[in-house]
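Much of our argument rests on the idea that a fold can be written as discrete symbols. In the encoding step, the backbone of a single protein was reduced to a row of integers, each denoting a local shape. This step matters because it turns folding into a mapping between discrete strings. For completeness, the protein is quoted in full, as a sequence line and a line of structure tokens:
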Amino acid sequence: MKWSVVLVAACLTLTAAAGAAASTWYVQADASAGGDGSRGRPFATLEQVEAASKPGDTIRVVPSMRPLGGGIQLKDRQRLVGLGNPVTKAAGGARPTITNTTAARYNGDAVRLASDTLVENVHIDGAARAGIFGVNAARAQIRGNLITHNMIQGNDLPRLERLWPDGFVIYQSQGNHFGGITLLACGPGGESYCSKLVPAAAPAANTGQTVMAGNVIRDSNLEGIMLLTDTGATAGFTITDTDVRDLSLNLPRPESLTPQVGIVRSRAFTLIALNRSQVTLDLRRFHAENLSPAGNYATDGIVFLTGGDRPVVNARIADAAVLNPRMAGEVNNGDSIEIQHRGTTGGVLNIDMTRLELRDPASANIKILEAQNPTGGVYNLSVSDSVFSNANPSGGLDGQIRLSGAGISTKTFNLAVRNTRFSGLGGAIGILNANNIETLSVLVENSSLSGFTATSGAKPIAAVTVTHPSDKTIGTAVIDLGGGPLGSKGRNRFVNNPGLDLSVSNANAAAGPIRVDASNNYWGGGAPATPAKVTTNGNVTFSAASPLAADPAR
């Protein structure tokens, strides 16, 4: 009997403790004043529900015709959930909407994350800075949200400039790192990007796995999703079923302002890894289009950038589309996917890409770029089962996959392309190396590199171009289009190209040769052992045995 009483009392105590630890609160913009946060008497402001709620609580946003203003800072383990129909599909009417139109509270961010928080089915509209913002927000989940009119403010440029003491957030071509979703992860040690932006933020050695699923970001300025890691942080991201569209479309041309402004970044997705940070990314079913108006905008779709000392990125992209139906963007920087070591020492970018649809960039479909003299960089890149095309007359003509190697040295560049179709303006692959490189490996198999065109008056570009200058060293260099040491099966088709099918040049006679194998390919029919539309210059060896007599059309 005594044990029964003790057990009952213990259960009651635990139940009470659990109830106290996890409450549910309601907030509604149309609610009457004096509510207590219950379902029948919801709070009327975000400030009220933020003050009343505790870590682990659930906050439910009741649909209203007006948004809840002022933004909200979540606490650890809180859930912010919008009630009603899915906001990403609703045509109109009352929605669970949050905004923050001034910098007076949370710098204009609409929702600020903490660790183990969830934001789900919320319409975030008209935030002055980030729609959802997190610093070392471990294991956050962002699901099914609609983010619109981010950093728009009616495109009132003087008003936007007054919001931030550091100046104009819109036209900071390199310094702007705010988007519809902006997450920073910084570990301990040294001055990090997080400490500069949010000095009070505690460092985090590992932010775990962040999940984003089913979010839509549109009709906003500059950025869709921005992820940045620094100072040894370890971070993982799983991002699925994301739509980013119609960015910066109403901003004026940067070059039309007084004084003129340089190139402005307008990007759908950006991942920046700095200073020994370790990042993994799984990006699936990602759609991006209409990423800027005409003018000096870098209309990049997906960007990977490293900086500092030995950062590592391991990424997989699957079922992604980056489209440019308005043919907009700045010629030198508008890329569907940009992969860059920027002033990096020993950086590593491992990126596997499959089932991509990349069309009509202002520059390249995949540009591998080196800037500010990186050293010892590693690129391990693969592309499979994809379609690349370009009908944009301002697009770069030297390769829809282009390496612009212009650093001090590259340790390794590995590129494998399989089962992929290239067509349109320019060529398929351009390896335009201008630095010292230890290992250069390019494999292409079962792919169509055909039907290329050139703009009026422009010289046609080869389907595959490889160049190396006389004053730079080169170690092992293999271009395997079939039958070579990298294992390419060949079966590539080079058909209806106005320029060359293949052009390889190595001006460094003292270094090792660039080895080119191109066997078991179709060269437009009846090709000789050395195809007529192939040129090699300088220190190059070439073999193209067993050409295919029939077109392996795909």
